[in-house]
Amino acid sequence: MTDLFLTLPFGRSLEAEADYVGLILSARACFDVRECVIWKKMQLMNSKDIQIELFSTHPSEESRFESLQKQLPAALDIRENCKCPKLSAFDLEKRIRAIESKFETQKMDDLLVPIKIDLIDGRK
Question: What is the mean pLDDT of residues 86-108?
Answer without folding.
Answer: 78
